[in-house]
Amino acid sequence: MPEKVVEVENLVKRYKTVAAVDGISFDIYKGEIFSLVGPNGAGKTTTVEILECLRTPTSGSAKVLGFDVLKEEMQIKKRIGVMPQDFNAFERLTVKENVELIAKIYNVKPETKQILEELGVWEVRNRQFHKLSGGMRRRVGVCMAVISDPELLFLDEPTTGLDPHARRETWEVIRTLKKLGKTVFLTSHYMDEVGQLSNRAGVIVNGKLITTDTVHDLISQHGGGIKVSVRGRKTKEAEKILQQFTENVVHDADILTGKFKTREEASKALAQLYQMGDGYRIEIIEPNMDDVFAHLAGHRVDERGELI
């Protein structure tokens, strides 16, 4: 079994009558990207801040890198890197100066040039932080989190508020962290982000962890299967074909959709649909983490992180 770097058991954080975190349990393994995914107010940040030793749990237990969050705070803080959701840096310092400042705080002498190159910020090293784009600021945040060579990185909503291009650039930075051998704990409300980056994920709503598994297995078990839609003048003929391979065939306006549990079943239906000739258009829709969340939580999450 891979080495556990985070162990959480029946963790609870209560504020008066509200349970921000309500009895959750999960593990994170060395070298993986683990994502806690859910809407705003789900308990993601509270969970992360407990593991970072910034908040005290009401009950339950948590260990980070083998150390107890209640008893061995300093041992944990020396070994982790953090980029909070509201990350900022010294506006008038350059990128390089900000990164080197963190290195001095940790009393380390890293290969600064190598790290800045690997994470794509070397070219802007002499630019003041306040002159950077939103995406580049997040890259600098990751650099500052990784400069002390931590064993575990916490990235709390690292792409919130970024445009699609900047988000994808940040994804590449996070993938680079994995290539460098880092373990990453990511929180996000973007389902596509979790699907693209994560080895495993936990779905959390209202402080409760609904399930935890590999992204592949979450999609396989809860994604609703593969959909094949047909649009055109031959939908009656197409319906007969779809019904040979699945009982789940529905009409929505002028679109006919068959849902299949496996890719093999969908492929057999497609082979016959393609023999129908011209006059129709087919589309294959693969399930994703958005479908998983909708199935498990009964809602979807919009771009702002709110349940809809």
What does this structure look like?
By secondary structure, this protein is an alpha/beta fold. Among the domains are: 4-79 and 151-220, Rossmann fold, CATH 3.40.50; 225-286, Alpha-Beta Plaits. It has helices at 44-51, 73-77, 95-105, 112-118, 134-146, 164-179, 191-197, 215-222, 235-245, 263-273, 289-297; strands at residues 4-15, 18-29, 33-37, 59-64, 67-68, 80-83, 152-156, 183-188, 200-205, 208-214, 226-232, 249-252, 255-260, 280-285. α5 (134-146) packs parallel to α6 (164-179). It is globular, with a radius of gyration of 23 Å. The protein starts with a strand and ends in an 11-residue tail after the last helix.
Rounded to the nearest angstrom, the radius of gyration is 23 Å
Class from helix and strand fractions: alpha/beta
CATH hierarchy, class of the domain at 4-79 and 151-220? Alpha Beta
**Helix content percent band:** 25-40%
Strand proportion, as a percent range, falls in: 25-35%
- Classify the fold: give the CATH topology of the domain at 4-79 and 151-220: Rossmann fold
- Largest sheet strand order: 6-7-8-3-9-10
Biggest sheet details: 6 strands, mixed
Low-confidence runs of at least 5 consecutive residues: none
Distance between the termini: 39 Å
Total count of helical runs of at least 4 residues? 11
Query: What's the order of the H and E elements?
Result: EEEHEEHEHHHEHEHEEHEHEEHEH
